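Example record for the data management plan.
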Amino acid sequence: MKKKTEHTINQLMNRTMLSCEDATGLISRKQHEKLTFKERVQLTMHLWSCQFCRRFERQLNYLNRVIGHLKQDADKGVINFPMTDTIRTQIDEKLQDEISRRKK
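Corresponding structural encoding:
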C-alpha cells in the first residue's frame, strides 16, 4: 500500500510541478493578466522550492515598479525621455508580441 501511495504522490508531483522556464513564463504573464487557479497553484508550489525563480519574481516586480514610476514622471513632464511617440509605440508593440509569443 505504501508503494502505491508513493507512486500516486509522484504522479501528482510530476503533473503539477513546473520547470523554471514555465515558472518564469507564468511570473511574466502574471504581471499583465490573471492566471488560472491551476497556474497559480503550480507557480506557488514551484516558488516554495526554487530560490532562483523567487529572485526572478522579486527582480521583475522591482523593474515593473521602477518603469511605472518613470512613466508617471515622464507623463507629468518631470523627466523627458529622448524618444518619439513612434519609438514608444514600437517598443510597446514588440513587448506585446513577446507576451503573445510566450503564451503559445
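Summary line stored alongside the record: The mean pLDDT is 83.
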